[in-house]
Amino acid sequence: MKKWTKYFIYVSVAFLIFALWKADYLVVPKISNYFFLVASLIFLMAGYFTKSFVWVQSLKYNNLPITCKSGVISVGLSELGKYIPGKLWIIMGRAGYVSEEYGYRLKDSSYISFYTQILTIWTGLLIGAIGFLFIPIPKKWAVIFIAGFLFLSFVLFIPILQKLFLQIIDKIVKKKVELPVIRFNELIRLIPYFFFDWLVRITGFALLLAALSPEFFKFVFLPAYPLSITLGIMAVVAPGGLGVREGVLFFWLHTGGLTVETATTISLTTRLWMLFGEIFIFVLALALKSFTVQNEHEKN
Fold this sequence. Notes:
The protein has 300 residues and is an all-alpha fold. It is built from 11 helices and no strands. Helix 6 (139-157) packs across helix 7 (159-173) and helix 10 packs across helix 11. The relative contact order is 0.15.
């Protein structure tokens, strides 16, 4: 294992332990249906494979091909990096691994990692916005959300507007900033992968709700999941979106008709459920990495 990857893993685990200790998320939920719980865990784990596949496809379309195994390893090793304050690490983690293993420029792999993250946020917000048709939210929130989503869309997909935006940013920070311009043909080819990834992950969340209680298995609650994920990613200060995701889920579930106690329990349970998935893909990535290194040593 190369030094960069090794140090990243050590730092990620340390921040994960600290973040969980500080947040006090050790809550044991009451399970109503264990069949649905197992099914939810299967979809949760499958979601990390679809996430890895999306990453592989994004690299492929930008002429930086890697294997599916490398995609799983790079995503898995960087997954706990989200608990390091600031979201740079989860972007640089998978980009750094790809750069090390394939000799690609870190600048290029980091750019595509950011590009992938932006599309994940954009598609997640788009899916989550469907819930606004069913959950009453303050008009100010709706205006801010719509304005922010449209602004992100214009900046990402219209080169002229992005150039103008970057010129303003350059003058403010006095440093050249680059953002990915997503061409329409690339969007058409890649967007189905992102939507399929969200479909798998949302299905896992729906099954988790059913596992807790059949009455929680409602369509109106499902948009809360992609919204909580994307807003958690956008919360740069909070490690892993700790507190942000739970807050979004709580608001949505409570506004949707659940009691304060029930909404709180579900939001905290969802965090523990997601943590299981993060540890799963992290351990799997370590195992695949160790197996790959061992095979290379045997060949040599």
